[in-house]
Amino acid sequence: MPLLKKVSRKLRDVHARLHVAGRKSFARAVYSVPALKHHDPRRRVVTFRQHCPSVARFPEECPGGPSDWYLPVQPSQTIHREHSIAVDANQARQFLAATARYQSGHTIVPQVFLAAVRRPRLLRDSMILLSRDDHIFFESAFSKHEVLEQHGVLDRVVRPRPAVLRGEHCLLGTPWSGGYYHWLLEALPRLATFERFPALAAAPLLVSGKLSPFQRETLALLGISEERVRELPAAVTEVERLFFPQIPAPTGNPSPQAVAWLRSRLLPPAGVTTPRPRRKLYISRRDAPQRRLINEEEIVRLVQRAGFEIVTLGTMSVADQIALFRETSAVIAPHGAGVTNTLFCPDGATIVELFGTNYVNGCFWALANLCGHRHAFLTGEPTGLDYRVSLAQLEQLLVRVGLG
Questions:
Q1: pLDDT range class, residue 20, cuts 50, 70, 90
Q2: Mean pLDDT of 371-377
Q3: Quick check: 151 and 130 in contact, CB under 8 A?
């Protein structure tokens, strides 16, 4: 049966690639016709700043302004990060190369803004936004061409008739906000932008589809009623008026403001007595579909000898996860969404993250830097999407960071 599943998956992948290649070839053929070149989506990618007049204050506070506008909310900034702790120089170099790709080393966070547009169209499967004159807003795809390519928006030839959503709405969802990390650190902090403006305090919030349990729970913890959240009614939806907040920092690069806002809203206020953080956790991914540790049983025996508890987070409520990590001073975990919860660990915690060499993304290293945590890592050899790490190297690393 496992072999049949692998063959079936491979066939589906081949079919998908052929479908994408055919769609791209057809689109390029259509838009190579001189009379149609102007309609080529690849020529119609714009930024909000290019498309909308810039304003100095929220126009609803000063009637008579433009109907579409761009309002800077937070200036750009540079984030300086401490190096992660590695077991050897070779792995340190690998990590630097990977984080240069995904986290840009010391990151310049672009200006955060709020934009308002009339009659834009939202694509439900990607949350990519198109203007009423059929331009593609680059920021709605995380300002990444690969996101536009991934969702096929650059190869559209047929444009379906949209459903129409009346009234004013605020965009909460993002292309990847179905994931725990992207929801907490990229989608939810958009609420901090809306909170700045009283006119948006009760405006409906748009998401792509039905909320998952963790999304509903986090909104409730933030005091957002489910009645305020609206699902897009169709594959393409035209919104009468939409407010678009730029995510606080590039995807995979948590923002200092987003982290501070989440911690202030989801952790107890200063002065509230909390237990001294003594717990040490190993986060298992045994229930995950991919990027699992092949030799996890050996890893578990090793970390248990060092005093670590073994936890699987998939069945826990968000509130219980927050409470657990508030009491935690050290975390060992394979790279995965559960590491997002280190956001709730107290200052000074130590995070040891495990990777396969075929995928090293430093988003949680970036998060650790903003939370006042130490970050260390270990890479291992992959087998497909799963991987194995060396027990000897893990023991060496735990000694180096004082957890052995």
A1: low
A2: 98
A3: no
